[in-house]
Amino acid sequence: MSIKTILITGCSTGIGRTTAKYFQGKGWNVVATVRSNPEADTELNALNNTLVTNLDVTKEDTIQSAIAKTIEQFGKIDVLLNNAGYGSYGILEATPEQAIRMQFDVNVIGTLLVTKNVLPYMRKEKDGLIINISSMGGKISFPMGTLYHGSKFAVEGMSEALSFELEAIGVGVKLIEPGMINTNFAETVGAGFNVDPSQTEYTAFAGKVMKGLETANSYHSEPILVAKKIYEAATDGKKQLRYIAGADAEQIITARKQLNDDDYIALIKQNMGL
Asked: Could you tell me the superkingdom of the organism this chain comes from (predicted)?
């Protein structure tokens, strides 16, 4: 039985990095991609059967280069994990156009471009699996998350749609929906809130939401929980589309299914002190 190969985007930190190490520990060939300076990552480079290489999901030439190196070294790609992403939170009116475009370039367009460039190799093999990292934020929305939730709702929709056409070539599509995770993702969000102090009408609202999100993040899970859920999705042989990761995600996604729109919105307002 040949060793399977997984290509993972966004391995500098968090879920991507933890997943790369977890799959390597399970005996897989791992292609761990980072945006820059792959040679400087001594930890990942020290792992057996691991290729650390450059891939920026917003630059198609780096996508194609990483895929070519994968095929050259390991011969095939059994699983693609589209993990690279980040969250842009804040007041839409205060958000620069560049920030709006970048959120969707990374989380949505980047996922599509990497997938598009991997598919010819999977189609040739008539086999493969695309796993996209979504979020509980792809099923529910929090205040001030217009960009992030919009991007993750897009990942949910495009993954579901893609699953129909790829079934014809023997390729599967799966979604991972983590809750709050203990990574520097939360720190990045906190440091990057788009607010404009001159727009005073939003001040009280933004303050309450930021405090509410900090409280929500205190219920986070560890990245290894998500890595194990990804491994389950990659190896269970099921045609299951969605996998929830984290007790908070289970709870809130279940609540969203059970509540109508008005009751759900009222619940979020209550939890955020709005």
From this structure: Bacteria
Please identify which of the residues 22, 89, 134, 174 carries the catalytic annotation: 134
Name the pTM for this structure.
0.94
SS3 helix, strand, coil % of the chain, rounded to 5? 55, 15, 30
126 is catalytic: no
**Of these residues, 4, 139, 141, 148, which one is catalytic?**
148
CA pair distance 190, 251, nearest whole angstrom: 24
pLDDT in tens, 142-192: 999 999 999 999 999 999 999 999 999 999 999 999 998 876 555 555 556
Catalytic residue flag (residue 152): yes
* Active-site option among 4, 21, 139, 152: 152
User: For residues 171 and 62, what is the distance between their CA atoms, to the nearest angstrom?
Assistant: 23
**22 classed as catalytic:** no
